[in-house]
Sequence to fold (728 residues):
Amino acid sequence: MNVAQPIEWTSQGVVMLDQRRLPGEVVHHIYTDYRDVAAAIRDMVVRGAPAIGVAAAMGVALGVERSSAATLDDLRAKFPSICQTIAETRPTAVDLFWAIERMKRRFDQLATANASLDAVRSAMVEEARAVHAEKRATDEAIGRFGAEFMPAAGKVMTQCNAGALATAGIGTALGVIRVAVEQGHKLHVLVPETRPYLQGARLTAWELHEGGVPLTLITDNMVGHFMKTGTVGAVVVGADRIAANGDTANKIGTYQIAVLAREHGVPFYVAAPISTFDLTISSGEQIPIEERPADEVTHLRGVRIAPEVAVANPAFDVTPARLITAIICERGVARAPYTESLRRLAESASHSPRAGTAGQRSAM
Amino acid sequence: MNVAQPIEWTSQGVVMLDQRRLPGEVVHHIYTDYRDVAAAIRDMVVRGAPAIGVAAAMGVALGVERSSAATLDDLRAKFPSICQTIAETRPTAVDLFWAIERMKRRFDQLATANASLDAVRSAMVEEARAVHAEKRATDEAIGRFGAEFMPAAGKVMTQCNAGALATAGIGTALGVIRVAVEQGHKLHVLVPETRPYLQGARLTAWELHEGGVPLTLITDNMVGHFMKTGTVGAVVVGADRIAANGDTANKIGTYQIAVLAREHGVPFYVAAPISTFDLTISSGEQIPIEERPADEVTHLRGVRIAPEVAVANPAFDVTPARLITAIICERGVARAPYTESLRRLAESASHSPRAGTAGQRSAM
Fold:
């Protein structure tokens, strides 16, 4: 199956698919300067937490690989500014800081060992590629654990884009669907367009279409109608943040899809890496909701579609755990009561950004 | 309170607000030829069942008033073609045919009585103005019956545009809100944008803003979030067709709002004239759902926002009666069991299009 890749390390440089121009144009950029990678992250050429993490790691690696430094001391002097430039792009992206920290630790290890300049350069590139490979492995594990919950045939629904474009792997929610299709499930995906930013219409519809997965694009207010009149076998969505009790923050609209799923007896699955678990908060009520600019609602591609009135634009909503049939991560499947099941999975994890930043991982 | 009027009879001709250009531009057209009124109906300068009925009546009246006929016989010969031109504009608009039939009956009555040409002309204009006045009276009655169900203060929600722009009165659902506001209720309206055609964003937000009613525009996938996190005191929507058992067809998205209202304990009201009652069908399952063109979903104002994939675009959905707290019409308020309450109201009605076309009304 064709999987659209948002970012790749190549001998020419870091190649990114410009997601801002999808679905109208498929444009790739080749970056040979880490400052251009930083600009690409900031300007949302790439988006989605895991993919941003991969981009950050590759940005740091690119900065090291192409640095003009002639000695290790010289490179050591230049390194903090490379990391700083990448860090200043998306201030709320947890994966970004996790990836930078990981690259810093690797650099410190190499510098402490007085590795040769060439060895440092190739080892840092290897580390960035390892980050990417781990993200891919995470998605594939989620896909395998989740596929068994997909119906043998029929309609499934997702929301937003929890796909390859967001993760740089096969996707989380879309990874589940992909693996199921590869295993022979005859799935047809209902894709809500996901206003206001239209990630469903622009990205998920494009990605599934490119991958040869049958789909139907719908507007967000058709969800209930299709659950009532068609047979939807399952809903599978991604997550931005999962509280200790299983409450899940995800793209706006996810909550009402979960309510509608429950109303119609449709199982509702969350597919997300352990890096989205935030066990420091006991429930979703503690998750702050980002309010985004009004013009995302009132304008579309620069065209005004509403008068100048008050607008609300919460980026996320919180789906209470009671509406979630199961949470699928790379280590397995959590079911209610989530406070126990999520902690058990998190404690067995080895690749969690939060675990990493909390210093629970052994040094690389 | 300022009420935007979509259509008015004036001494200069029939004045229409061009709703296609809202909210960006407020443009009025003055039509002095009935063929231009027909084109305006066909091209959706005016929309909304009751407003189309008013436009049709005014179109026929304009054709008679401005006819070159020198004798009553001459006018009698020209009259069918006027009616035919107006009838060929929107083949599924029940109110259009009801209005034309009413104008025909009035013309036949005048012709049979051998009224003078001038008398026929002024009587036909009067008849069109009477149609308009009756629509206004209907809305005002609905507004009065419905206002008491609005909270004294706080948020209410609607869907699509069941407002003045659709009815040529004060609106049905928006009429309820308007009357409540005039009576002193401190309401703030949450307006879902209503994809794909954006009647909420383009028309309802504009109309409420013009009328000085506080509102917040949201996307359709924010409904559940705001019901969960804010206090929504009531939902009030219009209707396209109400079956004998109370099942209600209305703009796509209405059904899921009703499910979400029930989930959050929010009362859900339908405000619609008796002309939308279709007691010949026992339940909503018999209501066919119009499928509209894919490009309404994939394009916005000519700009492609999705790839070339399969699209669903049902114009309406059906809300089952069990989710409806009450149905408010110009004769009063129906509550479950609707099969009895709707019939009782319909049988007491004197201004119903369907009652009219069914020959139950005395000749005018």
Remarks:
- Residues 351-364 of chain A have pLDDT under 50 and may be disordered.
- The first helix of chain A runs from residue 34 to 42.
- The longest strand of chain A covers residues 186-192.
- Chain A touches chain B through 52 residues (CB under 8 Å).
